[in-house]
Amino acid sequence: MTIEILMPALSPTMEEGTLSKWLVNEGDSISSGDLIAEIETDKATMEVEAVDDGKIGQLLVAEGTEGVKVNTPIALLVDTNESPHATIKNIADKPYLEKEKIPSKPTNDKPISIEANSSLITVREALRNAMAEEMRADKSVYVMGEEVAEYQGAYKVTQGLLDEFGGKRVYDTPITEHGFAGIGIGAAFGNLKPIVEFMTFNFAMQAMDQIINSAAKTLYMSGGQMGCPIVFRGPNGAASRVAAQHSQCYASWYAHCPGLKVVSPWSSKDAKGLLKSAIRDPDPIIFLENEVMYGQSFSCPDDDNFTLPIGKANIEKEGNDVTIIAFSIMVGKSLDAADILKDKNINAEVINLRTLRPLDVNTIIESVKKTNRVVTCEEGFPFSGIGAEISALITEKAFDWLDAPVVRVTGKDVPMPYAANLEKLALPQVDDIVSACAQVCYKD
Amino acid sequence: MNKNMAKKISTEPKMNYDLNLLQDMYKKMLLIRRFEEKAGQLYGMGQIGGFCHLYIGQEAVVVGIQSAQIDGDSIVTSYRDHGHMLACDMDPKGVMAELTGRKDGYSKGKGGSMHMFSREKGFFGGHGIVAAQVPIGAGLAFSHKYNGNKNVSITYFGDGAANQGQVYESYNIASLWKLPVVFVIENNKYGMGTSVNRSSAGENLSDRGKPYGIMSEIVDGMDILAVREAAIRAIDYCRSGKGPYILEMKTYRYRGHSMSDPAKYRTRDEVDKIRKTSDPIENIKSLLNKMGVEDKTLKDIDTDIKSVIAEAAKFAQDSPEPSEDELFTDITIN
Question: Looking at this predicted complex, what is its ipTM?
């Protein structure tokens, strides 16, 4: 009997991985629990154990192959008394996959143009480069958080920082968000520039008092004496199938509070330019990343001095018929929606907010004056959300320019469900943006 | 008080004390007391608003510890903070003007009684949320260690704060990373209206450092010499790089939790008894008498202090309210 050994899913967001090393050869007898391969995911390199006894009949994927999809057969396991060659004959239609035969990116991806003096890098690499560059430039910058040092980051964002900067600049903390957030704030009061990583912003709720009452308000309460130059960063919003307590967008929570600056990058360029600005900024910054975006590649400037200004939005695509206002992962979905809208003869403008507080009201209002129609997009809950704020601002500042009520595309007003179908329903999708745009253009 | 604790409390000075040092400590304690009495009066006159937590009775704690510090050490405490600021040599005028919410206050009138700071004097607040200052104090210690200087962080909190979770998160990290922080628990027996016996499991609050491997002592916080000696031990220990240290100061506040607290949870007799038998200022006064300082000298000191306080009170009432433009300043730096 022959069993296919499949590429395993090793994290909630993993869709593919690299088969970095085989630990067995064809013909080896193995027992359940033996290590058979090393697989590199976007988060870590993991060893894969055999789940059955038998003999390795054939290795179907070469060492070093990137982009091996979850559930692809990677090897065949045969009965110990069976000859491996007999098996190969029986499985004639399974070609031996060569490394270069598997594309490293999904084939339906649009080609990415690389700008001058730039490289194609992932959002994850851009974030790490931003931290490393700023740490090289300023010795008062240090990193602390859960698993940021020896483990190389729960999501590999801090990979390599410990090796380069050592244990006096990169600190693994215990799992005590309240405590280490407060310690970071104290260190910032002591003139250091901490980068505090929350494994995800869901866990930062434990530290909310220190962030709001201590980091955000102390400058004001001290009559301007007590600056707090700290960056709190980590993934925000939904990941994939991790349910209600691990899938929430905190943008409107933090953006609500005077004293904080709230930044949320979309692309690698955003990630690098904004994180560098955040680290250099004298004020406390909430830096909301997105786990799903970490592995996505974009053109990103190589220059160590490249920064993007906090408080300035970017028009990712110009258009005349409707303005789509988005941040973080929703920028990509909005651009996809804009592509679809072209076929409906709707030319959408897409604004990437980049910063939520201070909000670039001017860019929004100027766009409204041009398109007269607005759709806001966010993963967060609708009630008192970023879209609600933008809608109110437009009503106050550009009411006479509107040709239709502002429509909000948001996450549904429910805790995030676990079931795949319900999760998809709860999250805003490209089709929702397309419909909302058609609605405000009265073309639905 | 249990027997163990009684043994640990030192009542007689083991060191030789310089008369000038003792007089300075007396002056500072008296300054705090007279300041707080005046603040109480101004509150009664409606000149001070909101919450106002007085330090009367606890003066020996902060003055004794401050006498063991060096320049550059950082201090952080809760909202019962007037005494700590005066002990740090912050100007009584600026502190009082903050209490009255005026532009010459340390926070330009925007912080109030509970939120004052002076980077120049190493005073990092003044924090209004119970125990929020404890991880901040550990973070200040982190900055000292990171910068490789020999300074320590003195982190004060009350018995009420000792039940908050972040205290133990801070103990854990401070001990793991050997941060130079002295945690000073000012145990005045009541967290607002709830006595320590009714709020805190276990025998002593200082024992709670033991599982984290943190050295601790219980100290008679009404005896300034005992406080000073313990502070020297604790600060030396931290300064030498051995990690954190806990001092549990057994102290007592004579006034209510805040000005609006009628203090019905304890008897008048309890307060009077402590005032009569263990008042920290009377204690040092009688020591100074024994050392030959005349009553007249002590009285002159009191007269001088009263005039300093009267001047501060006048300044605090004469200073204008902050300009309306201040509403939108100091929210962020840029």
Answer: 0.91
